[in-house]
Each structure stands twice: as structure tokens, then as C-alpha cells.
Amino acid sequence: MSENQMTTAMPTTYDPKAAEQKWYDYWMQGKFFEAGKRPDAETYTIVIPPPNVTGMLHIGHALDFTLQDILIRTKRMQGYDALWLPGTDHAGIATQTRVEQKLREQGISRYDLGREAFLEKVWEWKDEYANTIRDQWAKMGLSLDYSRERFTLDEGLSKAVREVFVRLYEKGLIYRGKKIINWDPAARTALSDIEVEHKEINGHLYHLKYPLKDGSGFITVATTRPETMLGDSAVAVHPEDDRYKHLIGQMIVLPVVGREIPIIADEYVDKEFGSGAVKITPAHDPNDFEVGERHGLPQIIVMDETGTMNAEAGPYQGLDRAECRKQLVKDLQEQGVCVEIEDHVHQVGHSERSGAVVEPYLSTQWFVAMKPLAEAAIAAQKAGKGVNFVPERFEKIYLHWIENVRDWCISRQLWWGHRIPAWYDEATGEMHVSREDMAGDHLSQDNDVLDTWFSSALWPFSTLGWPDQTEDLKRFYPTDVLVTGYDIIYFWVARMIFTALEFTEQSPFKDVLIHGLVRDSEGQKMSKSKGNGVDPLEVIEKYGADAMRYMISTSSTPGQDLRFRWEKVEQARNFANKIWNASRFALMNLEGVEAGDIDITVNLGTADRWILHRLNETVRDVTRLIESYEFGETGRILYNFIWDDLCDWYIEFAKLSLYGTDEAAKKATQSVLAYVLDRTQRLIHPFMPYISEEIWQHLPHQGDTITLAEWPVYDKALEAPDAVKEMELLMEMIRAVRNIRAEVNVPMSKKIEMLIKPSSEAEAAIMSRNEEFIKRFCGTSSLETGLHVNAPDKAMTAILTGAELYLPLAGLIDIEQEIARLEKEHQHLNAEVERVEKKLGNEGFVAKAPAKVIDEERAKMNDYADKRDKVLARIAELRG
Q1: Per-residue pLDDT tens digits for 502-533
Q2: CA-to-CA distance for 46 and 61, rounded, in angstroms?
């Protein structure tokens, strides 16, 4: 759109669908979201938390992305060279599982296809769903710089992953070894903790008697997984447990398999729990593994990678682990070893992808040695060189995890992902780790791929070109804020921090804004199984993107879950319609006005100065609140200003000038109306980008798009406390009259008499200046104002700050009812006085509160007390 171009004819109603498609296409064609066009400006960078290429985006994504878009749009308008870098995650196991499921429906498996052909299928899937995600981003109105879009398996990121792997290996921080990991026997791969869902299961606790070798008795242990007893290497007791001290060092004969195992002492055992003796199975329990390491116990694996019992399971070889449990318990009962089975509710890990019960399993895997990396991250955080968590309570959660971190299992037995850059020489048995692919007759590459979180841990700097020292990396790194949910602080946030510190010597972002989950209207977590999920595209289809964005962002409080309610989306849509209708009215009265004609410095009336003051306050508050990530409070401030101050009050007051005969007053009001609407669209734009662009293009304006329009700034010259005081008195008066009319059922169409007794000459002057407003908005047939006005006997009364109102409604007023109403008002004012007195009597409040706040509270108390006294006086008059 060219400078000053505008079309005053706005449709009667706003059509979100038409506007959204039109403006997103326009923004894309104009390349308005591309960073790097302001070389002298300060930068502001957000890298998007990359969604998995496994399907559709959900309402949680909509919250996450909308908050980022609000920040980036605001900063872009504030003149920053703002980069919001988009991208997607290959999502190893999640994507591979989906593709394998699709193949199973065709009766084939990945093994039928082979690795290369299977990977071709996954790339096809990725391309399809990456396009779907882009379409969804567009529908949400996200101002992403698509020219810099990345994918965790693209060539540049693959180079970064190799570089990190090799450097960590060369430093001895990546190693290959045997440890207990989460094993999915259905997908036949190691899992990360985030891929394990813990479900409450009604299971059993099996009490087993293990006989002492010398025949002198038994020692009783309890287990929820009796099949693992076949891999027991010891029974442990606490070294200070007097019941068992004499047995430490003795041998036990393991039932069924007949293997001799020792009784050992270890402080890991809780002597107060159960019998105080626990079975130790180093190959099938992470805690037992550590006990076994301390005591040099054998690590006996009793099942294979599919969860089928192996040769070490003796007579149960070939049985599935669940079948083995049934048969073994039956045999133990017959032998008198299983002495009790009690019901037991406990948490059992399930694979998020396959649904199989996860097996703690001893396996040869690749690991990152976490201690040195964690120590550097802890030191940076405690030295104030780490990241700022919002809310700050999440810093404790982060530090607790990283202070207690275990070595990270980074290998996965999958085909889709970054293949581990290690090659084995079959002739010599040597292993080579390399940045470049290796080839040779006897060389074969490790079949495993890296955990998805390994590549996404590098996201803030790898996406900007690292390890190459690119211009983008120099300019846009470190990033400014990461917006994410609290559920991945450990899995992603922490890993990004320690890898960034290791490889860039800087924290990857200044702030981490943590938001909660989007729950359903009942507060339940959304899930496919419950069928209570919300598709953001369905919300957009029904109410428009702006309504969804406004509702979800302004319902958000940092760190807190929020409830999705359809009625709140409807309220947001109604708010958008209110803005539309107000703008449409204004444009009908701005015919011929151009951007250059707007002058908000001359011929301003009280209402004009007041709305500019209120706009100025709103600019200040909205800017501050967005910068402190208080989007819910921002929404409240914007809503109150637009709905109440602008639409319900100013536009009504403006009609007197717009329809009047005073040309100077009319021009002044047109200027103020155009200016305030323009600034209002700019303030609402980050939340409601489409309707604000549509309205702004109709208004007198300069520039091509509101997305690049200058963000409003607080202007001391617009302060008008005298106009605020005047308007507040007028508004209080109008509200009081309308409330009284409502109480006695006198409609606005019926003119009434009105008497005003101002408190001083200053208030009297206000009444005189605004007589026309008072008559119009109070609906008076006659108006008498004066310091010596006498209250009529039969009149309704309103006590205001600075005046008393009397409405002689003869025939409509019952004296006793009026006294009762005033007594109720007296009680209310008395309670307010007591409340403020209590507040001011609180030493803690007085000590901490700024002087301005204390002065405001004292002024409130005096005002309430004054009104209370006047109400009492009026009650006395009526009682005569």
C-alpha cells in the first residue's frame, strides 16, 4: 500500500477468512518478516522450538508460537532487526514409529525394505508433514523468516552434530559402554526419559523366601517383577541392620535356577521398608546396577531385546516376559517360595511410541559423560552468566536436575536420525570416530543413530550456521528468549544450555519463558485417549486466528497451566468485532483526512486530552508488561482501554464535536480519533495481526504495513491529569444517573430534572464547561448547578467525588426505599474506609510501598470518608 492511501469504506462486518488469506499473502510477498534488513539496528532473536514432523500441530503449539509471535512482532515494530527462525525436528523414534505403522498397514516392515529404501519413505513423510506444519503456521499468522528455515537433519545441522560428537569424543566426554537404559522391547530401541510415560498400574507385590545355603533359614525379599529374580546376583541389607548383621557374607541358593548368590551390605537399602532385605538384579534395575558396580557383582541379562526370556532364564527360555512371570509365580508357589502376593498400585513406565512396558535393561550404548558439562553450566548459572528463568522458580528445578544428572544415553537403535559417526574395522577390531564418512573393505559404520535431543540441543547456534562463523551467527547469537513448556526443562532446555556453554562459551539465550500446559475446560490434560484435545485450525475456522491468538495468549500466566474455553474464544471474537465497529464508525467521520492532516496539539477538548492521556498510559503499561512476559495482564489493560475508554466513552463524547458546528473542534477530534485508532491498532497488532492490519490500511497512515509501523512510545507531553480528573467526575456522574434510572425503571428516553451541588468553585467550573455533555448523557429536561443548591425533599441522591446529585423523581421515589439505598451505600463506603485504614496501618506495606502508592491510598481513604459523611448527612435530611 502506498503512503497515505486509505479506503474509508469498511464492510459492515469483519470477515476473518478473507482478511487472513489476503494479508498473509501480502506479508509473504513483501518479505516483511525477513531479518537482516536493518544492519545498524539492535538485534532480537528467537529460534522456534522445532515441532516434530509427525503430524498436526496442537493447541499447546498454538500457545507457544503465539507468545513468540507477540514478542517478535513487538520488537520488529520497536525498530529491532528481529529474527524469528523457523524449523522442524526429525523426531527420531516418533517419526519412525509412525512410518513403520503405515507400512504395517500395507503388510510390510522396515526390514523388508532395507535401510536405504525405508529412509526414502521417511523423507517422503517428512516433506509432507513439514508442508502441513508450514500451512498451519501461516493460518496462525506467524511472522516467521522462512528464508532461514532449518531442519534437524539438513546438511548444515548434520555437520554441526558431527562436529559436536567428535569434539566431545576427543575430550573423553562421549564413550561407549554398558549401562542400564530405558528399553522398548516392541520398537527394540533405547528410549529417552521423555519418551517414557509412567502410568499407575494395579499390580502385585510378591514376597519371596530365599533359602540360606547352610540350611539355617530364609531371607525374605519382595518384588513387583518376579521374572527378574532369575538374574539376581545378590541380596542386600543395610550394614547397620541388627537383624541381618550376622548373615552378611553368607550365601543364598537362588530358587529355581539353583545359583549361589551372596548377602551383601549396602547403605542403598532402606532398613525401614518391607523386610529390610532387597534382591539385587544389576542387569535389570538402574539402582541395582550401581550397587552391583560397587560390589563387583555379575550382570546377568535374562531376556533378549524383544522381551523374550533367554538361556540365562533356564527352564523359562523362549517365554515372553509376561508369560514367564505367570509360570514362574506358579512354580514358586508350588515350591513354597512365594509366601504372599499382595495387591500393589505402582507406577510402571510405558513407551510413549509403542505402548509397550519399558524394560530397564543392561545394554551397550553411547553415552555423554555429564559431570564436567553440568559443572560448567552450574558455575555459569551461579555466577550470573547463565539464563534468566521466567518465572524464576524454574531455575531451582533446572539446577536440581543438572546437579543430580546422570550420564546421557545418546544412542538409539533406529534408522531415522543422525547416524553415529563411528566406524569399526572388522580386521583389527579398532573403532574410528570421524567428522567425514570413512570407507574401506573392512570398515562398517555403527548402525545406531543419535537421540533426537542430541541434535535439538544444538538448535540455537547450529541453525545460525555453527560450526562455521557465519554472519548470522555473529549477528543473531546468542538469542534473546526461548519460549517453551515446563515439561521439557530437563530434556531440552538444560541440554541447550550446557552444549552452548561448551561450544560457544555463551548461554544460548538471555531469558527462558516457561509457560504451562493448555488443559481442557475442566482442567484435565488433553489427550487423544480422552478425546478432549482442541485443534487450533478448528478454532481458527470457527472464530478466526485473531480470536484464538488473543484468547490463548491473554489467558496465559508465566509458568501456569491454562484452561481452554470456547466461550472465551467467543469473547475474544466479540472484542475483535467491537474494535471493528468502533473503527468503522470513526472512518465514516474521517472522510478526506490524511496522515499529514493529523495534529493532536491544537483545539483539544477535555475528552480529547483525556483519551490521549489514557492511550499514553496504555502504551506505557502494555510495553512494560510485554517486556516482562505478562501477557494476561497486557490483555486486561488493552481490553479495558479499547472497550471502556475508547469505545464506550470517548467515541460517544466525540460525537458532539463530530456532529457539531465548531469546525476547529471537529478537526481536533478527527485528529485525535485517527491518532488514537492508529496507535490502538499498533498495540493490538502483536496479538491480533490480521484485523489490526485490515483496519490500519483503511486509516490515514504512512508505510506499507502495520507489521513495520513504529511501536508507540510514552510521551510526557500527552499527560493531562486535569483532564483525567474532569472526565472521571463526568463519568462518575453519568454512571450514577444511569444507575438511579435503572433502579427506578426510568429509561434514558424519558427526560428528567437534575440538580448538581459542586464541592467547590473548581468543580462548578467543570460543570459549566461540560453542561452540554451532562445534558446529553444524563438525559435532562432541566439542569441546575450551583454551590448553594438545596436538596429537594423527594429526590434520589448520588454522592460523587466533588459533587452531590439530586434527581427529583416525584411519584417514583419512596423515601424509605431511598433511605435504605443510602444506608447500603454508607455501609459500602464505611467498609472501604476500614479496608484502606487497615492497609495503611500495616507496617510491612508502608515500609515497602513507594511513597506515590501510599499517597494514593490516603487520598482514596479521604475521598471515601468524605462521601460517607455526605451520605450520612443526606440520610439525616430525608429523615427530617
Answers
A1: 999 999 999 999 998 888 888 888 877 788 88
A2: 15
